[in-house]
Amino acid sequence: MPDKLSVERGRTAVLIMDYQTDIVGYVGAQQEPLLKRAARVLQESRDAKIPVIYVVVGFRADYPEISPRNSRFGASKQTGRFMANAPGSEVHAAVAPQAGDITVVKHRVSAFSGTDLEMILRAKEIETLVLLGIATSGVVLSTLRHAADADYRCIVLKDCCADRDAEVHRCLVEKVFPMQATVVASEEFLAAIRTQA
């Protein structure tokens, strides 16, 4: 990794993924500091004119998007979770979308699978993605793999990602993600955008 992180504002977007109330609740004691760091990243990114894109899990009534063969999302269909406007499916109030932000609704783990995210990124001529999300082993891993294969430059904010399993999180951010992304703490990213013209 270079000594100093460089961020080209006009070609960068921040992806905040699965920061929905029910999902944030999964991370227990990590919740409050995680939300504070994420809120700061979002506000300073907006101030720097870097697009903020929310990626959320959501399904239509009767869950037509969920195959009976999909074990991961089958439970959501049975419990009624993440249906449009269902309690707990909203983005957590501490990091709620603001005017001008974009929201992409997904039906699978990756932010790219079956969504219009790539079209939005192309339309905005985005080359660098800044990733933060819950869970590290879910949406962050899946989205990073796709983004890297699609030739995006990726930056993962390790202290704005979380997983129920701290060891899985540590392994991913220290050993797996650096093969395809620049992995930094949120303060390093914020320092970089403060210094860019």
List keywords for this structure.
single chain, 197 residues, alpha/beta, Rossmann fold, six-stranded parallel beta sheet, 7 helices, 37% helix
Report on the architecture of this protein:
The chain is α/β, with parallel strands linked by helices. It is 37% helix and 16% strand. It has a 6-stranded parallel beta sheet with strand order 3-2-1-4-5-6. Strand 2 (52-57), helix 3 (71-79) and strand 3 form a beta-alpha-beta unit. Helix 2 runs parallel beside helix 7. It starts with 11 loop residues before the first strand and ends with a helix. The model has no long low-confidence stretch (mean pLDDT 93).
Indicate the structural class: alpha/beta
Please summarize the sheet with the most strands. Answer: 6 strands, parallel
Q: In angstroms, what is the radius of gyration?
A: 16 Å
Q: Helicity level, as a percent range?
A: 25-40%
Tally of helical runs: 7
Which strand order spans the largest sheet, edge to edge or round the barrel?
3-2-1-4-5-6
First-to-last CA distance: 21 Å
CATH class: Alpha Beta
What is the count of structural domains? 1
CATH topology: Rossmann fold
List unreliable stretches of 5+ residues: none
**What are the secondary-structure elements, in order, as H or E?**
EHHEHEHEHEHEH
Q: What's the total count of β strands? A: 6
Overall body shape: globular
Strand content: 15-25%
Question: CATH homologous superfamily - what is it?
Answer: Isochorismatase-like
Specify the CATH architecture. Answer: 3-Layer(aba) Sandwich
Q: What average pLDDT do the residues reach? A: 93
